[in-house]
Amino acid sequence: MVNQGNDEFWDKPSWRDRDRRKDRSRHVGQDDRDIQPNSRWVRKQVLREADKLFNGNRAKKKMNPEQDKNLNEIHRTVGTKKFDPAVKNYLKSYGLPEDWSTLMLLLEYTHADTVEEAIERLKALYPQQGLEEQQGFRSKLNIIAMTAKDEKLRYISEQSLAAIDG
Q: What pTM was estimated for this model as a whole?
């Protein structure tokens, strides 16, 4: 096909040329162009920030390997028949755990006294938790208050819910 006076079409820059110009723009800082999203440094920074978000700035308490194994057993067996024996074994050896996630799992335990202690510990940790964890705890308290067979446990759940909602 012969070009018949429509030179304007042929003078348009290609997409490749447009991208090159955009990269050389004065409005894009030099530092922004040098950081690649897949770089190791960026990944490390993102992981560090995520760790701060989910774990806070608290250092994780060191556990001996046996305690760590028993704690992992609780997390692995939640919702199974092996959960209660795993919790009983852990409590007998180490007492009530201090971490939020395990305490939340203990709310599923069948012994009301242990659940009451877990609720008290969770209430103390509540202000330091993120919004998702706080909402999860409130939901769990609502469920316990509505479904627990133990009357004292229902009462404690209702009172704890009222206390944290303020």
A: 0.62
